[in-house]
Every structure is written in structure tokens, then in C-alpha cells.
Amino acid sequence: VPRLAGVECEDSAGAGAVALPVPAGLGCDAGDSAAVAVDALYQASALDLLRLAYVMVGDRASAEDVVQEAFCGLYRRWDRLEHADNAIYDLRASVLNGCRSVLRHRAVRRRVLADPPAVSAEAVVLGGAEREEVARAVERLPYRQRQVMVLRFYSGLSDEQIARVMGIGQSTVRSTAHRALAALSRAMKETS
Amino acid sequence: MTPIEDVLSRAFRASADEIRPGTVPPLRLHARRRSCSLAYGGGERTRATVRRGWLAAAGCAVLVAVVAAGSAAISHGLPVQAAPASGAAAGNPGGAGAALRLEAAIRDQAAAWVAGQVSHDAIVSCDRLTCADLVAHGFLARNVRVLGPASPYPVASTLVIDTPAVRELFGASLGTGWAPAVLATFGTGITQITVRVIAPHGAAAYQAALSQDLATRKQEARALLDATSEIELSAEARRQLASGQVDERLLFAITALASANPVDIVDFGNLATGASAGVPLRYADLADNDAAAHMSRSAYVQSMVAVLSAEPAQLRPARIQPAMLAGGKAVLRIEYAAPTPLGLLGPTSNRSH
Q: Can you say how many angstroms the Cα of residue A173 is from the centroid of all Cα atoms in its chain?
């Protein structure tokens, strides 16, 4: 059965990935070019988005779920997308929204179940003290500040691009970044 | 780049590099576009486990049956207890005996409501007769505090049942100063009974916490609607959700359900009359099947029950039961106990309403 590279179709019972009898070169829905386009985007940007989600939420399983959900969302909305060029912005925004949901759910569970914050011993050993210190300081930032820090210093986006992804003004991006850096400096000084 | 920016950049990069090229799992798109999601509990990630099994399904079926039977018994009991007093009052409205019977009937309704709707972990203050009624309806006696002439304001309680006898003890100051939010109202005039939430830090602090909670609920609802398209809502349900009227515990339940199956929300509501503005809606009526889930109705309901049963105890619904709406639509009702914890996501989780 012809398959798109990297794309697997699930059967309706959800029991796992199965190969569907689809025409050559097409994805899961026969005649649906959305799968082709979404797969191409996945091949090109999944690693970057997975890393972005991982930096935001700190655990790989959640990051993979968030990225998968973002691509599924794009696939569902593909026909309503005004410009295919905007898809990467759409994906990045979906990933960040997904990360926010994961972190909120985690915060509630921590509060309700009194779970300790999940910084693994392995991460501490591998990452060293400085990284752990940064991770803890960033974790204490409000979500919007954390988002701006990651988009600016990990993704290397300009203020204009960050504003577009987050749906806020450029001046808000600058002021948020300023407050976040000030808070991080204070936190790092206190720790050291 | 300043030193702090440099440190941040290096730390983020080091963290991101833990995800190595070539280890990204394949994209999994569902055969039907509408159904593409992290469905059936297995997630899409590599080697994710599938949670459902025949034992869980069978357990869930038993749970649904038990909850439905219990609920039917409670709802069947209420009108039977209220009816004789109402009839007596109608027959002899001016008599003192009829007034007492009417008062007793209203008290009984209030006690039944508290026993059925309020978390049995809550501490409830009331006058002697109402407390006795409350215990008779199955509320835990150890969580009931009887108010008498020497009692201070019951600020250590969760709720107070504000009856004529309680108003004789404290006047209106209890309601205005220490218990501003009404969860439910029974009767009218001098015989009226209200079930109120105690604000241990006073009414002003309570109102401030309530406003903050409302803002958080609005924000959370928007995030929920943005994060997934697995949720279908009626226009009314969307309005209720967007305006922050929905209990935060329901938001978490819906998030959990939508991560397993498509969810169709018919409406939200409260089983109470006369509640204060801003008191969150504690139940959601969900369609008992969704074509996009490609499951039988019973399998769909069982999977929903299984998802909710796996939530932590504090986020687990008090009841999950089938219900029939006025238009004849069958729904699955997911209901949380009162009072709603206030500030579940914020810093003020010690208060409730």
C-alpha cells in the first residue's frame, strides 16, 4: 500500500496504526491533499517544534503529545487556512497553547496532590547546576514571560515574529521580556 | 547579548539538544480528519500505553448503574417529603400549625438539598432542628455544627444554613459580613432558608477572591477552547463557558474527556434555585455519544466514566449519571459537589463557594 513518508493512518477503533488502501501518493483521506502538505510540514518542522515544546514543558512525552495535537489540529483546519505560508505560525501558536494547558494541568495536580516539582535527578546531573538554576528560575516566571523568553532566546524570533505568534503587540513583547529578564536576574542573584 | 541572556540561551539550547534528530515519532493522522486527536487513552506518542481493558469497562458499567440507582432514589424521595406540608399550608394558610408545617417542609427541602449536593467533607453550621434533619438525610453527624445562643460566628465552617432561627441569633450580619454568597434558596419571606458559603476572611476578601477566580475561569475556558477542537458546544454552553460561569473542576474534566474522545457539550447548570450571581455552574450535560468517536453509545459512556474515574479524588465528579432533558434529549450529566473550591488555579485555594 503506498504510504506517505512518516505518516501513519489510524483505524477508526484507535487500536493502533494501520495501513489504509489509499491511492498512490495520498495520505489518510483519499483525495485529501491536506495530509500531503501537513506531512511535508511535519518533516520540515517537527524536530524544532518538539524541542520548543520540550523546553517549555520539560518532559518528552507531554512535548510529543502537544506537537502531535498541533499537527492534528492543523490537519483538521487545513481547508480554512487562509495562507499556507502562515501554517508554521499557526503550528507554533498551537504548540505554545498546548504547552500552557499541560503546565496548568500540572500545576493543579501539584497543588491538589501535593506533588513535588518534577525536575529529574538525571536532568540535574546531565545539565549541571547552572542549567538547573535557570530551569527553576524560568519555571517560576508567569507563562507569558516564559513564552517570550523561550521564543526569543531559544527560537531566535524577532519581537515582530513573537508578537505574531502570541497575538500581542510588539511593545507588549518588549515590556514582557524586560520584566522577565529583570525577574530572572533577581532570581539568579538570590540563588547565587 | 548580556550575560543573563547568554546563560538563558545556552540553557535552552542544552535542554533542546536532548531531543536528538531521528528520534521524532512519526506523524499519525486519523483516517477521518474530524477524529484526529490523542484518542482512546493511548496518546500518539511512541510506545504509549493503551489504558482501556475489559475489566475497566465492566467496572465502569457497574459504577454507572449504582450511581444512577442512588440518584433516582434521592430524587424520588424529595417531593414525597415536601408534599404533605405544602398541602396542609394550602388548606389552612392562616393557622400557626400550618405555618409550622410549612417551615418544617422548607427546612426538610433545604436539608435534603445539602445532603445531596454538598460535599460530605464540608463542615455545615445550622440550627438544632435543621442539623437534625440534615443528619437524618444522611449527612455526616461529625461534620455538622449546631448553632446556639452562645455560638460565635461560624467562621470555621464551610457552609451555614441560614434559617429563621439562625437569623434570630445573628441578625442579618452573618449574611452580609461572613456569608455573602448564596448557593441555594428555599421558600420565601420570613420562612426563607438560604444555604450560604462562609467567607472566613470576611465578605470583602471573599468578593476579591471571587473576582479573581472569575477572571481565571474565563482565561482557562478560552485556553480550553483554543487548545482543542475536539469539543462541540451548543451556543448556550459556549456562552456560559466563555463568560467564566463554569466550575473549574468541570474545565479539567472536559479537558481530560476531550483528550480521549470528541465531546459534545449540551449545557451547564446548577441544581439549585436562588443562587448568587457568580456562583459557578457545577454540572455539565454531555451528549451520550458522538459519531466522530466511532463507538457504540455504551462504549462511549463507559470510556468517559473511565477517564473521569482516573482523575485525582479532588477532581473526580460527585456523580456521573444519565439524564433526560426537557426536550427529550438523553445526556450524560457530570456533576461536582458544592461548594466550588475558589482559586483552584490561583493562590487562594483555601476558600470556596
A: 19
Q: Could you tell me which residues come within 8 angstroms of residue B103 by beta carbon, excluding any fewer than 6 positions away? A: B164, B187, B191
Mutate to test the interface with B, among A7, A10, A26, A90 (most CBs of B within 10 A): A10
| Strand pairing report for B124-126 and B159-162 | parallel
Q: Using a CB–CB cutoff of 8 Å, tell me whether A34 touches chain B.
A: yes
Measured torsion, CA atoms of residues A60, B250, B303, B118, in degrees rounded to the nearest 10: 130
B6 to chain A: nearest residue by CA? Answer: A153
What is the distance between the alpha carbons of residues B135 and B115, in angstroms, rounded to a whole number? 8
Q: Do A10 and B28 touch (CB under 8 A)?
A: yes
CA distance A70 to A68: 5
A chain contacts of residue B14, beta-carbon cutoff 8 Å: 127, 131
Helices (H) then strands (E): counts for chain B: 10, 13
ipTM above 0.95, yes or no: no
pLDDT per residue as tens digits for the range B260-302:
888 899 999 988 777 777 788 999 999 887 777 777 888 888 8
Calpha distance A188→B5 (Å, rounded): 12
Interface test with B, best of A26, A38, A51, A186 (most B CBs within 10 A): A51
> What pLDDT shows up at residue B41?
33
Report DSSP state, residue B338: B
3-state secondary structure A121-152: HHHHHHHHHHHHHHHHHHHCCCHHHHHHHHHH
CA-based nearest residue to A148, from A168, A175, A177: A177
Average pLDDT over residues B239-266: 88
Cell 445550622 -> residue: B126
Burial of B349 (0-12, 13-18, 19+ CB in 10 A): middle
Q: Give the bridge partners for B320, in sequence order.
A: B334
**Which tens digit of pLDDT belongs to each residue from B193-209?**
999 999 988 888 888 88
A36 and chain B in contact, CB less than 8 A: no
Q: Could you give the angle at the alpha carbon of B211 between the alpha carbons of B208 and B216, nearest 5°?
A: 125
Q: The C-alpha cell of B150 is what?
A: 452562645
CA atoms within 13 A on the CB side of B233: 19
Tell whether the model's pLDDT for residue A25 goes beyond 50: no
Closest residue by Cα to residue B181 from B351, B5, B52, B50: B351
